[in-house]
Design a protein that fits this description.
heterodimer, A: 257 residues, Jelly Rolls, globular, B: 142 residues, 4 helices, 6 strands
Chain lengths: 257, 142
């Protein structure tokens, strides 16, 4: 359990260190944020802002996101930082930007994110709920989501119309869990990880990802901006995107505080 | 001030009237707020004829009289020409208030004050989630 609780009376600062995104953290449970930054993400949104409409990019690349309808300042993963709550109805974090779109590699890359549902019933609500989605169009998109099927987390990688997916079934935690997705066209592998463990068998037969990311479907916590369907109902934290395939060891490290 | 979810469904408005209504909606809710959730925001039904809004509203806006005035302002008509009929419907566990607006005997719009419009935001949220579960296909959730 973290000792430091931001904004709560009784917090005892031990050592305050700038995180490089305008916020500060204490050296109590270790610098989780630095571990992710060291992996070299092209964009990294801890989402620990206490207020405001901007999701700062801790990668140093300035690829900020824009919040809609989230409630900031919720209890985070235990690293001393807070996170946003997505309401299942209208919330999302629109991370699209021309710079991110240019840096994104549909042929080789990785996603990381911590997730938590608001209630056990979310796992059986029959509703698709998005964690992360980077989409060009229906034939070229990659993401992680809770499907309509009960007690399951899924991923998808659709490239050139070739659709691959993987699922973690019989899964209904009400505590934080970590998801990751890696894809590599040249190595012909897509791997979905939950809590640092790869879902097997890994997927092969990747198509060729083409096109530029959509400005309305490159986001966290929803299918799209505006209409905002398939909204995540719970907490998300520390979402990161890479233009390389993380190793299993790196994913496991990211899934560990 | 009250944070809640409000539904609005077009029944007979023309496109121009829908545009005017949308413009009027954008004027309510706080102009700034440190929490994104409290700013006016919404999602649309796939057919473009219904929306669910959330914001920190003025108390007077989330009443039958307030909604009548909102519609009258949007349509540029005298509020006295609008007739409101209220009923309740329970989507989850708490009754929501349905307000049907008509002009000259023609139904124009239907509003839903989720959980009655005065419940805590989490209660209102629960009713919206129950409503969307029932109507998931129309709203793109499945």
């Amino acid at each position: 359990m973290p000792i430091y609780a931001p904004g709560q009376a009784g917090s005892v600062p031990i050592k305050t260190v700038s995180q490089g995104d305008g916020t500060y953290a204490l050296n109590v449970t270790g610098f989780y944020i630095d571990k992710i930054k060291a992996m070299g993400p092209i964009a990294y949104w801890p989402m620990s802002e206490p207020s405001g409409g901007v999701a700062l990019d801790a990668s140093g690349n300035g690829r900020t996101g824009a919040y809609t309808g989230v409630t900031l300042g919720q209890t985070g993963i235990g690293d001393g930082r807070s996170c946003p709550s997505f309401d299942g109805v209208t919330s999302y974090n629109n991370v699209y930007g021309a710079s991110l779109a240019a840096a994104f590699n549909g042929q080789q890359g990785s996603f990381l994110c911590w997730c938590k549902v608001n209630a056990l019933g979310v796992w059986t609500d029959g509703t698709t709920r998005r964690v992360i989605l980077f989409q060009v169009d229906a034939n070229n998109r990659v993401g992680i989501f809770k499907p309509t099927a009960n007690n399951e987390m899924d991923c998808l990688y659709v490239a050139g119309g070739t659709s691959l997916g993987a699922a973690k079934t019989t899964f209904s935690p009400t505590i934080w869990f970590h998801v990751a997705l890696t894809w590599n066209k040249s190595g012909d592998q897509m791997i979905f990880y939950v809590n640092g463990t790869a879902i097997t068998p890994v997927s092969t037969g990747l198509g060729t990802f083409v096109g530029a990311l959509s400005s309305t479907q490159t986001l966290l916590g929803s299918l799209n901006t505006g209409a905002a369907a398939q909204v995540w109902n719970g907490l998300l934290a520390h979402a990161a995107v890479f233009n390389r395939t993380l190793s299993a060891a790196e994913v496991l490290s990211a899934a560990t505080l | 001030m009250i944070s809640t979810y409000l539904g609005a469904e077009n029944i007979a408005l023309t496109q121009a009237q829908k545009d005017a209504f949308r413009a009027t909606l954008s004027q309510i809710g706080p102009p700034t707020h440190p929490q994104p959730a409290e700013l006016m925001h919404w999602r649309g039904r796939l057919d473009g004829n219904a929306t669910i809004m959330r914001a920190q509203f003025q108390d007077a806006d989330i009443t039958t009289a307030g909604l009548k005035q909102l519609l009258a302002t949007a349509l540029g008509v005298n509020v006295s020409t609008i007739t409101a009929t209220t009923s309740t419907q329970t989507f989850g566990t708490v009754p929501s208030t349905i307000v049907l607006m008509s002009i000259a005997g023609v139904n124009q719009m239907r509003f839903i004050m989720f959980a009655g419009g005065r419940a805590p935001i989490q209660v209102s949220n629960n009713e919206v989630l129950a409503y969307l579960k029932i109507n998931g296909a129309a709203w793109g959730d499945v």
